Predict the structure.
Amino acid sequence: MLRISNAVSLADDEIELSAIRAQGAGGQNVNKVSSAIHLRFDICASSLPEFYKERLLALNDSRITREGVIVIKAQQYRTQEQNREDALNRLAELIRSAVKVEKKRRATKPTRSSQRKRLDKKKQRGSIKSMRGKVQP
């Protein structure tokens, strides 16, 4: 059981985990042991609430296929158990980030005094630069 929030959790049979060989350096061990984990999660066929599904499918993430399947490959650690935990944590974090509602930005203006100060500093800096010219006899 993967816990997303207090009210939402995923059953283990909804998440498809398969062990594959990890890429990269690792000597002889990398050719023998399947320590990487390939996680597949079908958004449409899951028990997630509709709001979660809509937000996930609207995401522009390379880990989500056109068919609505999340594919995560975890191969950071040497053991299969650690990679399995990493893949599940990354899936939960992806779902949580999709549902998080960002605060709407409210446009603001600079205050009148800050505008005045900025213009005064510009004038002061300009006068300093104008004094650097050649001295007239």
